[in-house]
From TrEMBL:
Classification of source organism: Bacteria, Bacillati, Actinomycetota, Actinomycetes, Streptosporangiales
Gene3D superfamilies registered for this protein in UniProt: P-loop containing nucleotide triphosphate hydrolases
Compartments where located: Cell membrane
Organism per entry: Sphaerisporangium melleum
Any one GO cellular component localisation term in the record: plasma membrane
Primary location: membrane
InterPro entries, per database record: AAA+_ATPase, ABC_transporter-like_ATP-bd, ABC_transporter-like_CS, ABC_transporter_ATP-binding, DrrA1/2-like_C, P-loop_NTPase
GO biological process, one term: response to antibiotic
Name of the featured protein: ABC transporter ATP-binding protein
One example GO MF annotation: ATP binding
Length: 306
């Protein structure tokens, strides 16, 4: 189990981290989200020993994480740490040797990762000749080459196309299934929501929310209704009680396929009275949908950091 306890870090008068704590259990994937400059990268660098904390500690399996412990971690920094003129296969193997592997073992592991990550056609190419997506795959292979006990990945999905995202997501799921704690940061909240068992939201160096997506949804103070009505006259939405968060009101010429020729209105509402909202919708037209809507992680994030 990876434990981060009370990390604090200052740069002069700037507080980068103010008591950050998190726990990632074996086989758990933890999504670390926050605005630029919130403290995600600083936290990860302290976990890896790249930076020293002013206070707090990083623990692995109950003991302090030192140099020997961190050699068993896999790290993917946001700023890619590859040798531009080194060829793909020899680069991955080289980092395996740096991680303490014997040459034959590093070579076998490198070849397996090259195949798994779809780099077979690029194994003899220099890194600076690769696309961004393929450079990301090489960087991930470097993080995985020594079969790490923990994965710490800073913005691993940045700039990837959907195929590369799926390949990377599959590898992370495999590592988690094998029992490794996986921590990654991302601004792509739909991916975090889909891939992670738990999420931490950081703001200005403080963890402001943490838990499973379901737990974070349960904390959401404003329940939302999704209401779909067809055949209503314009202006009926103004009579709904509560706050209209979003609405789509289309004349009959722009309704979704299969909705017929009638006007189509879709509303996301924070109601002050849900029964009155139902009455207004039913009196306005035909109610096609009326139900509570679970907030997305992006909506939770916006509410938490506001």
């Amino acid at each position: 189990m990876l434990e981060v306890e009370g990390l604090r870090k200052r740069y002069g008068d700037t507080v980068a981290l103010d008591g950050v704590s998190l726990t990632v259990r074996p086989g758990e994937t933890f999504g670390f989200v926050g605005a630029n400059g919130a403290g995600k990268t600083t936290t990860m660098r302290i976990v890896m020993g790249v930076l020293a904390a002013d206070a707090g500690q990083v623990r692995w399996n109950g003991g302090p994480a030192g140099f020997a412990t961190r050699r068993r971690f896999g790290y993917m920094p946001e700023e890619r740490g590859l040798y531009a003129k080194m060829r793909v296969a020899e680069q991955i193997e080289y980092f395996g040797r740096l991680g303490g592997m014997r040459a034959p073992d590093a070579r076998r592991s490198a070849e397996a990762l090259i195949e798994r990550l779809g780099l077979a056609a690029r194994r003899a190419d220099e890194v600076d000749g690769l696309s961004l997506g393929n450079q990301q795959r090489v960087q991930l292979a470097v993080a995985l080459i020594h079969d790490p006990e923990v994965l710490v990945l800073d913005e691993p999905f940045s700039g990837l196309d959907p195929i590369a995202v799926d390949a990377l997501a599959g590898v992370l799921a495999e590592r988690a299934a094998a029992g490794a704690p996986v921590v990654f940061s991302s601004h792509q909240l739909d991916l975090v929501e889909r891939l992670c068992d738990s999420v931490g939201i950081i703001k200005a160096g403080r963890m402001v929310a943490q838990g499973t997506v379901a737990e974070l949804r349960a904390r959401e103070s404003r329940k939302r209704l999704r209401v779909v009505v067809t055949g209503a006259e314009p202006g009926w939405i103004d009579r709904l009680p509560g706050e209209v968060v979003a609405k789509t009101d289309r004349p009959h010429a722009a309704v979704p396929q299969g909705a017929g020729d009638e006007r189509y209105d879709e509303v996301i509402l924070v109601p002050s009275d849900d029964q009155e909202a139902l009455r207004v919708a039913a009196s306005a037209g035909r109610v096609q949908h009326f139900g509570w809507q679970e907030p997305s992680l992006a909506e939770i994030f916006r509410e938490v950091v506001a």
